[in-house]
Amino acid sequence: WDETHFGKMGSYYINRTFFFDVHPPLGKMLIGLAGYLSGYDGTFPFQKPGDRYEHHNYMGMRGVRLCSLFCAFLGSCLVPFAYLTVLELSKSLPAALLAALILIFDTGCITLSQYILLDPILMFFLMGAVLSMVKCNTCADRPFSTSWWFWLSMTGVNLAGATGVKFVGLFVVLLVGLNTICDLWDLLGNLSLSLVMFGKHLLARVLCLIVLPLALYTAMFAVHFAVLNKSGPGDGFFSSAFQSQLIGNNLHNVSVPE
């Protein structure tokens, strides 16, 4: 059922047809991009679950071929993400291998990753955020190094990605936030660290974990509204002034008072 739901939204992006959904746009935009890059033309109706795709090229959105950077690929990335995260936390190769094997043979992950769903995209960014956070913590002994900046920035990017797919991504924002608060508290209690240096640590985290994710999250909506410029089923959720900007709408190019 969900594949019918989100596959249709991927088609909306390819056809540039405006729609409204309760979830943020990133996941559906990526599904549409994967379909576009793999040759899908956005014509399959996605009317009800179980309809045959027939000649329609749906494989790119599922990630089985051509556009390999999608659902199946993102679901596959969970295994190395789990391996690297557990390895960093435990420094135990058997523990890391066990975590990877658990995901490799998890029926739920395998099933979710082979369809046109938001779940593998969401899990990719969630686990990416956790891995980046853990990697950044391991660089704590060399702050402001290239690797430290890279992993701190990647944490912010993955936070934006997780929240941009579904609002449930806010839970990983909470996790990273608590980790950051504990980290800053330890730095504040370090009497060998000057207040100026502590201010630099605080500013770096504000830039990478607050400003960067918010900028990326806003940019997702900018792309969303720029791409969907044709009238569609989501018109009625927005004002007349907004509808007048949509090609094909009855109010298109009509002068609407503020």
From TrEMBL:
InterPro entries: ArnT-like_N, PMT-like. GO terms for molecular function: mannosyltransferase activity. The chain crosses the membrane at residues 66-86, 92-109, 116-134, 154-181, 202-227. It is found in: Endomembrane system. It is a multi-pass membrane protein. GO terms for cellular component: endomembrane system; membrane. Pathway: Protein modification; protein glycosylation. GO terms for biological process: protein O-linked glycosylation. It holds the Pfam family PMT. Keywords: Glycosyltransferase, Membrane, Transferase, Transmembrane, Transmembrane helix. The keyword Cell cycle does not apply. Belongs to the glycosyltransferase 39 family. This is Protein O-mannosyl-transferase 2. It comes from Nothocercus julius.
